[in-house]
Amino acid sequence: MQTTNRDRVTLLLLLVLSQSNIAFAESSLIRNLQYHGFLTQGFTYTTDNNFFGESSDNGSFEFTEIGFNLSGRILDNTYASAQVISRTAGEFDDGDLKLDYGMIDFNLVNSEHWIGGLRLGRIKNPYGFYNDSRDAAVSRNGIFLPQSIYFDKVRDLIHHSDGFMLYADVNLDNADLYFQSAYGRSDMGVNVENVFLADDFPGEMEDDDPISATRLIYEYEGGLFRLGYTKVYLNMAYDPAAAFPFDLGPGGVDLDLDIFSVEFNQEKWSITAEYMQQDIAWYNFSIPSLDNNDHTAEGYYLQTTYRPSDTTEFFIRYDVSHLNIDDKDGVRSASRPPPPQPPPAFAQYAYDWTLGMRWDVTKNLMLRAEYHNVEGTSWLSAQELPFSSMVRDWEMFNLLVSYHF
Amino acid sequence: MPAFAHSAEKVIFNPSVSQNVSEKQLRSIFSMRRRNWENGMPIRVFVLPDSHPVHKAFCKMTLGIFPHRLRKTWDRLVFTGTGQAPEEIASEQAMLEKIRQTPGAIGYISADKIDGSVRTLPQDKDKDNADNQ
Predict the structure, then answer these.
(1) Range(s) of the domain holding residue A152
(2) Which of A6, A56, A260, B105 is 20 to 30 A from A301 via CA?
């Protein structure tokens, strides 16, 4: 905890220094040096259940995001960028300082019709419209991204790759095509084990498991119409602990994930929808209930955003999550014989109606407020509240303030 | 002739930039995705504030992008590490000065504020000549 506080203070100092314009002079090694950052604080109150802290008591302030990045040009066609973040998010994230991304970008093709190149390092994965910019509040489409697709409880799983990315931007006559394909190692953690193995067992999901994420976005007339397709493959290997009373076996989990994204933009209106399907396969575990559990999860949302002025935005969103499309009401899963005690049926799905607003008070200061009316708890985590204490129908109120530059 | 040649806002270049650009290249330059001129020189993009009427008109008429979309694109690039934000200039006078001084620079101002210190697109010149005849 002390390290975390020190991390936060370091990062805050960096933000303050950067604002005073003395810390970063233009150097000859890195030209066109730019720095940006954000400081975000959220408040969550839930009528029941817990999300981002013990939100059902008096509300929770355990949602803080501090980030700082630098970017610049090393050679005429070579760029470098890095961002560090401290993220506090209930039981999911403790505020430790992390390298969010850090990469070198070789711009290899720069022709009249297309631009292409290679990025090396830690790269935020292209996943749907939002994963790669998910940690800056100003780039999200709400206080939280739609949880059916952008699960905060397993955020680390698909967050970034340590490896490389190929990219190409093709300029067509009335449209642009954006292709990105990342391949590397994914970052696992306790959160992932909790979700995929239903508990934090001794032993761990290896943190060097391969992930590949490829996204193609077609943008017509500067974004009047946007179409996206994402494909992600991920393999997680479980390394069992020797001394555990029962051996889970050296198993693994394979994820195969597709996302279809579509967006219409007008000056005052935007309509966004995304659909995700995720095939999950378990293998080589010694517990049959784990090994025979292959299934397909899905998530989708539809959001309509209205901008009455340049500085205000209202939206309505309907977000649906099914952890198993062959057991949408969760009844089959809930009737599994213990042990372990199966989660209640309503933990297999979530239907979330959201009303939200955004107000850009100044160019750098953004306020958001949201109301959620939810049936089901599929994107809540047992780390924050045991399944036995969860309630099916619940509501959530959120406030968020974000300073960014 | 492309639509952007008719707008009241004109693209201006530092005289060091000798190439011409198509409408689709302009879109990719102001979206901060294209980062080098054809001769390899880095592109320096200057913009007016989001709320500036000339910026709004330039986005819609010349680029064919809503200002809110362009802002989202820049925010995404900046916070994914895959690009940089354009440099923001407070006024058209300051913009003209900055474009004149900065090698590789591109920006835009109202047509009536342009002087001989910066380069414009040849289509724009043709249009101006046609208007004068």
Answers:
(1) 2-404
(2) A56
Reference A147, options A403, A376, A325; nearest CA is A376
B interface with A, Cβ–Cβ < 8 A, is 22, 24-25, 27-28, 31, 33-36, 38, 40-42, 44, 49-51, 60, 63-69, 72-73, 75-76, 78-85
Q: How many domains does chain A have?
A: 1
Overall residue count recorded for chain A in this entry: 405
Place of tokens 């001394």: A243
Q: Identify the structural domains of chain B with CATH numbers, from first to last.
A: 3-132 (3.40.190.10)
pLDDT tens digit sequence for A69-85:
999 999 888 999 999 99
ipTM of the complex: 0.86
H-assigned helices in A198-344: 288-291, 331-334
Report which residue type is found at A122.
R
Model confidence pLDDT, tens digit, residues A24-55: 555 567 788 999 999 999 999 999 999 999 99
According to DSSP H, which parts of B1-133 are helical? 23-30, 53-57, 67-80, 92-101, 122-132
Which residues lie across from A120 on neighbouring strands?
A104, A164
Query: Lowest mean pLDDT: which of A20-29, A197-206, A313-322?
Result: A20-29
